[in-house]
Amino acid sequence: MLPWMVICALLCVYHAGAACPAGCECSEAALTVKCVSKDLQHIPSGIPGYTRNLFITGNQINRIGTESFKGLVNVTTLSLSNNRISQIESNTFADLRSLRSLDLSGNQLAIIHPEAFSAPSRTLRDLNLSRSLYNHTAVKDLAASLRLSALSSLQGLDLSGNGLIYLPDYIFSHLGSLRRLQLANNSLVALHNGTFASLERLEELDLTLNAFRTFREEALREFDRLPWARLHLGLNPYTCTCGIEPFAAWLNESRARVADAERLVCAFPAAMRNTSILGVSDVPLGCHRAGQGPDLALQTSYVFLGIVLGFVGLMFLFVLYLNRKGIKKRIYDMRDACREVWEGYHYRYEIDSDPRLSHVSSSADV
């Protein structure tokens, strides 16, 4: 009996080992498969069906498509970080009916097809795309994919470290359940109307380490549309000139919502460096306030308009000067024509008013 048990155990070990793809480590007990830094060119086939946690990282995989994850209906956590993936096809993750967390960080995504992140059961909760977008064209592809992939249950989205300089309008409008949005370490300079449309449930927004010099009234209205969001706004190159005043006033009123409000400081100009933005309203910036003097921009507009009108007047006089002889001739011609017409009317009047010539006029009419 004992030899048969040993043989069965060996067979089980053999089959378990055979079920694990080459270059991967499989643990049925932990329901985990790891294929880490094995220079894989594609997603390995034969991944066990029991797998819930799948880590394929640090390889040389260029693209992933609908055939990449066939039959892996139990996978809940999928990490594909640092694989140099440049293309994701539509419905790539369609077979991952239990997928909750997807990590694509550290890749080189240049082509993201529509519905790239769609899954039939809409179970995806966390999507990590940090340091993964190859160029600005990928941002437009991503915006389209976020709209078409039916990610209505997504709660966490990480887009940090992608060098983003803008966000397409309404890029997050179809992510109504989103609670955490990471936009740190990019190059964003402004937020526009509709940037955070439909994100009423957002609880955390990270905008640290970007290129914001201030937040204008349009951006402040966007923040006010996120009533439950904890904001992180530090480590931006804030420029404390007249344009910073609306933001400083808003920050003083909303400091409870800004996690790092006490650490927000001016970077420019040099005289204001490291000055707390909360205290900017107490520092004279030399700005014209309403009711305290004329608006500088309006004054500049009037001056510019006066210069333009003066230039047009000078050009008109110059043209008149160049054509003075022709203009003088035309005036004389008009004077002579008027004189001839006047003399004709005067002659006719004298004939009509002389009784001695009335019979001549009547004969002529007959």
Strands, total number: 13
Helix content: 25-40%
What's the assembly state of these chains? single chain
Low-confidence stretches: 1-18, 290-294, 360-366
So, the CATH homologous superfamily of the largest domain?
Ribonuclease Inhibitor
Radius of gyration: 39 Å
Q: How does the helix and strand content classify structurally?
A: alpha/beta
Q: Roughly what is the average pLDDT, rounded to an integer?
A: 86
N-to-C SSE string, H for helix and E for strand: HEEEEEEEEEHEEEHEHHHH
Shape field:
elongated
How are the strands of the largest sheet arranged? 1-2-3-5-7-9-10-11-12-13
Distance between the termini: 154 Å
Strand content: 5-15%
State the CATH architecture of the largest domain.
Alpha-Beta Horseshoe
- CATH class identity of the largest domain: Alpha Beta
Please tally the helical runs, counting DSSP H or I stretches of 4 or more residues.
7
* Total number of domains: 2
Biggest sheet details? 10 strands, mixed
What is CATH's topology name of the largest domain?
Leucine-rich repeat, LRR (right-handed beta-alpha superhelix)
Outline of the structure:
It is elongated, with a radius of gyration of 39 Å. Helix content is 31%, strand content 11%. The chain has seven helices and 13 strands.
